[in-house]
């Protein structure tokens, strides 16, 4: 069965006769539910005969007052009920399915309404917070301007500026003194380090000179020893030469003496005849 919606209301009508959106939504739900079901007329007649109250009837005085003032929904209701009574009954839909659909639609509308209310409340709260913050900022600014324009605050500001400058100068002077002391300590440390390095260098040089002198002394002693050995060798060679010369001279003298002796003997011995000599 095609679904038909109720007659659209103008914004002025909603603003005038719907102070509560919840009541308006419930009214639209009840009309839509009645228009969907083909058994709406018969079921309403049965309920009226039995005297039992309707299931989802809204007894709000606002809705009763709105319905009484607007005849258009009633005419539409009568037209819809007439059309539904003349239309054939569908075979695919049952009352239980229609009830479930109504429940789902009602739940969906309820959630949408709650979400809309929540968003509206959040927007209103945000606007309220922004407005409050602006007002507080403006009030604080005015208060600060009033306080700053007073002579007492000006004197206090001047006093704090002078105190801050004095403190700044004192801090700078103390910092310079600390830096000066640190520089002196560093200079002393550097001087002490340089002195130690010089002492170590002097010790190293002295040790090197001592080693050089020791080496030179050892070399000189070795050279002297070698020269003495060579001198002794030369003396030995000279003595050997002299001894050889002396022995040679003695041998020559002895040989000469022997020759002289032989010559003396030859002179004293008589001459033998030549024949005897042969």
Automatic annotation (TrEMBL):
GO MF annotations in UniProt: cadherin binding
UniProt biased composition (Basic residues): 44-81
Pfam families: ARGLU (PF15346)
GO CC annotation: mitochondrion; nucleoplasm
Residue ranges with Low complexity bias: 1-11, 82-99
Region annotation (Disordered) ranges: 1-105, 212-278
Biased composition, class Basic and acidic residues, residue ranges: 212-251
Listed transmembrane segments: none
Domain of life assignment: Eukaryota
Identification of the protein by name: Arginine and glutamate-rich protein 1
Organism: Davidia involucrata
């Amino acid at each position: 069965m095609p679904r038909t919606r109720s007659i659209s209301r103008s914004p002025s009508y909603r603003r005038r006769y719907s102070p509560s959106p919840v009541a308006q939504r419930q009214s639209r739900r009840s009309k839509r539910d009645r228009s969907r079901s083909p058994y709406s007329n018969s079921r309403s007649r049965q309920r009226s005969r039995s005297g039992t109250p309707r299931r989802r009837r809204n007894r709000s005085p606002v809705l009763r007052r709105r319905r009484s003032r607007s005849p258009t929904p009633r005419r539409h209701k009568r037209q819809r009920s007439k059309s539904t009574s003349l239309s054939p009954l569908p075979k695919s839909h049952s009352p239980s399915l229609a009830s479930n659909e109504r429940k789902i639609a009602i739940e969906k509308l309820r959630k949408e309404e709650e979400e809309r209310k929540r968003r509206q409340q959040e927007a209103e709260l945000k606007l309220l917070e922004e407005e409050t913050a602006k007002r507080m900022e403006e009030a604080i600014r005015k208060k600060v301007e009033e306080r700053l324009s007073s002579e007492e605050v000006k004197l206090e500001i001047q006093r704090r500026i002078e105190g801050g400058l004095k403190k700044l100068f004192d801090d700078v002077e103390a910092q310079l003194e600390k830096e000066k002391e640190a520089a002196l300590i560093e200079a002393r440390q550097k001087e002490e380090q340089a002195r130690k390095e010089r002492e170590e260098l002097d010790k190293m040089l002295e040790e090197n000179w001592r080693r050089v002198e020791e080496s030179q002394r050892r070399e000189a002693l070795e050279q002297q020893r070698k020269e003495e050995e060579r001198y002794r060798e030369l003396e030995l060679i000279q003595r050997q030469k002299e001894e050889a010369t002396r022995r040679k001279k003695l041998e020559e003298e002895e040989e000469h003496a022997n020759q002289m002796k032989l010559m003396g003997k030859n002179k004293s011995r008589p001459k033998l005849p030549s024949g005897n000599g042969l």
